[in-house]
């Protein structure tokens, strides 16, 4: 698809790590695109400041209690930006004429409704919110197919695979032997289970290579992030788990690889900066400036690869098993993980409690339909309840 028209971009999760990187890239291309909708969860001051800088038509705050603060803040700044509040307003704007492109960068299951709305409306969807594919991958992909929605993955690994797959005839589905997702290994790579028992939230969010929001940083430290990404790759590229591998690559310069049936392996390399993925998505099929410099191969010198430690980091296999079980299991895994990560960040459980709580929820919430959003949201709710009660039984008694 050539961009023969100016792009109006909705940035959902605008105040976050991905959202601010997306706005940085958008602002570099005033002839090609602008931010027309900005949405955030709760931080009105940060949202108003972004509106001052980017002058969108619409600003939405998810927390309805913040509506008056947003409206008054926009007025005080002398902006014509229209204020909105609530989850439904985010989904409605994502599907509306206010945008052609949606950057889905809300964190967690909270991003599902707007991801699905953008897919159903046939928007160009730049998908960072991996949790929506983990929860409802079949429904999101089916909605996108029906509406002719083009999904460009923003997660760096999937963005790398997206680029590598464009090297073959897209109709030759049989040409791919496997997809290899790289993982940095996180801040605790090489640590023993005994060492992991005492890690603090501050250690877990200090990622060695990437600067990211707190939830995904903890997921990277536990390797749950890689597990979620296996499920994400399965849906995005319609490939079974048996054709997906995970390899630890501590330098985080090779963002992922595709192996073809002829023995070729293609990789995408670059500095660990999400603006590259975002520029690929915003510009595709053109290449546009992202503000990221090239990789100095001689300065970096080497690329190392090793197998993940699946016993010290059980979240990876928990995710893999949930994907193989299918149905509601990935939604249960995701919801329980969100509750467990919040409890870990709040100091209520230890790091090893994260896989324990997720495993417990997967055992407790096993049945249920998975063929509608309502059914998946019900599974999400039951998993959150199971995870919360596991947390209070296991750790507060
Ligand atoms: P973040 O915590 O920095 O930002 C989250 C954003 O979501 C904020 O703007 C926040 O206001 C908004 N938000 C939170 N709850 C909300 C709600 N209920 N309704 C509406 N908005 C809400 O997170 P992040 O690191 O930018 O990650 C965003 C998404 O991108 C996640 O799904 C993450 O897995 C994915 N991702 C991030 C990176 C990265 O480098 N940060 C890389 C790959 C994928
Ligand atoms: Mg990633």
TrEMBL record:
Which InterPro entries is this protein grouped with? Answer: DXP_reductoisomerase, DXP_reductoisomerase_C, DXP_reductoisomerase_N, DXPR_C, DXPR_C_sf, NAD(P)-bd_dom_sf
- EC numbers: 1.1.1.267
Q: Which Gene3D superfamilies match?
A: 1.10.1740.10, NAD(P)-binding Rossmann-like Domain (3.40.50.720)
Q: Which UniProt keywords apply?
A: Isomerase, Isoprene biosynthesis, Magnesium, Manganese, Metal-binding, NADP, Oxidoreductase
Residue ranges of every copy of the 1-deoxy-D-xylulose 5-phosphate reductoisomerase N-terminal domain listed in the record? 9-137
The 1-deoxy-D-xylulose 5-phosphate reductoisomerase C-terminal domain is annotated at 151-237
Looking at the record, the residues that make up the DXP reductoisomerase C-terminal domain are 269-385
Binding of NADPH, residues: 15-18, 41, 43, 129, 131, 213
Q: What class of enzyme is it?
A: oxidoreductase
Spell out the reaction equation it catalyses: 2-C-methyl-D-erythritol 4-phosphate + NADP(+) = 1-deoxy-D-xylulose 5-phosphate + NADPH + H(+)
Chain sites annotated for binding 1-deoxy-D-xylulose 5-phosphate: 130, 156-157, 184, 207, 220, 225-226, 229
Listed under GO biological process in this entry are: isopentenyl diphosphate biosynthetic process, methylerythritol 4-phosphate pathway involved in terpenoid biosynthetic process
Q: What's the protein here called?
A: 1-deoxy-D-xylulose 5-phosphate reductoisomerase
* Source domain of life: Bacteria
State the family it belongs to. Answer: Belongs to the DXR family.
Pathway(s) served:
Isoprenoid biosynthesis; isopentenyl diphosphate biosynthesis via DXP pathway; isopentenyl diphosphate from 1-deoxy-D-xylulose 5-phosphate: step 1/6
- What does the function comment of this entry state? Catalyzes the NADPH-dependent rearrangement and reduction of 1-deoxy-D-xylulose-5-phosphate (DXP) to 2-C-methyl-D-erythritol 4-phosphate (MEP).
**What residues does Mn(2+) bind to?**
155, 157, 229
A molecular function GO annotation: manganese ion binding
The protein's required cofactor(s) are namely: Mg(2+); Mn(2+)
